[in-house]
Amino acid sequence: MKLNKIASVSALVLASVLSTPGFAGGHTGGGWHSGCGTGGSSGDGCNASDYFADDLMYSLANDGITNAEVDGVVINASAYSDTAGSESIGSYYGYDVRSDTNVVSAELKQYGSGYGVINDDEKGKSPDHSVDNASSEGWQKEGGTYYYNIDTDYDYILLSFDEEVNVTGATFSWLWKDDTQISVAALDDTSMLDSGSNSWSDIAGDALAVGSFDVLNCDDTDLAMIEIESVFSQYWIIGAYNTVFGDIGSSMYDDGFKLASVGFTTKPGEKPPTEVSEPGTFAMLFLGGALAMWRRKRQA
After folding, report:
1. How far is Cα of residue 180 from the mean position of the Cα atoms in its chain?
2. I want to staple 19 with a disulfide (CB 3.0 to 4.6 A). Which of 186, 209, 241, 244 is the partner?
3. Domain assignment of residue 158, yes or no
């Protein structure tokens, strides 16, 4: 298991990561590392370079987000957020309470060595332009009627690989807060993302595997260890913590990051069995001739 690379891990809690749709994986509460956890703490031994030692690394800023190639694997990145399909979710003193529910495309934009997301509801204040789940609410007016709008948009980055891979972790160039969580899902395809009629809950329920994880404030960078093992897919989404992808007991609406890089491994190929080559025709003739000459000498 990858976590064995970090020798100073003294207390590690692993939860089951189920590959059936709608189930979540990750850890349950606390920090993964006794000397390197959330909340700004750091310590010896928590090193992203060691963690990703055996992995391929995709750097969004250096490799680009369009037809990036890493060791022969081609990668494209794009963004999505639930900013469409405003629906009534209740009432407040006779006034309608609404919220956006449907996932649609958003803009993926570079900020230095990391990438953030600009969705259709961004207003320019922090943590806008990061991959976030910040919530805002207030009164709005439509057709002469007031309603109360709760605007919580969950931003996600889609990584599309040209072959099936297992995403093992991620690093970040910027965090809104030290205590940050992310959610991840492996998808069978992108049809539910592109339809414009599905919520994140719908997408999580149809995913190959899902999980939520802490971001660790490590020695050399901010690192999320993504432990969704033995699941390989061409399509992975990484975004702000959303309990529909796995509830790990942390609070939502306070997570924001800019994605710097992603570690992944390719699917092990089925290598053909090694064949022992048979002697060639010339070699067989040579051996036959040599044997005949040896017999004639013996007879002489």
Report:
1. 15
2. 209
3. yes
Find tokens 């040896």 and name the residue.
Answer: 294
Q: 161 in a domain, yes or no?
A: yes
What is the span of the domain harbouring residue 85? Answer: 2-266
Q: What is the pLDDT of residues 7-22, one digit of tens each?
A: 222 222 222 223 333 3
234 domain residue, yes or no = yes
Q: What are phi and psi of 177, to 5 degrees?
A: -140, 150
- Number of structural domains (the chain) is 1
Q: For residue 81, what are the β-bridge partners? A: 104, 155
β 155-175/73-84 pair status: antiparallel
Tokens found for residue 210? 């899902």
Task: Give tens-digit pLDDT for 180-195.
Answer: 999 999 999 999 999 9
Per-residue b/e over 39-50, b at no fewer than 16 CB within 10 Å? Answer: eeebeebbbbee
The model carries a pTM of 0.76
Structure tokens at 184: 């991840």
Does residue 279 lie in a domain region? no
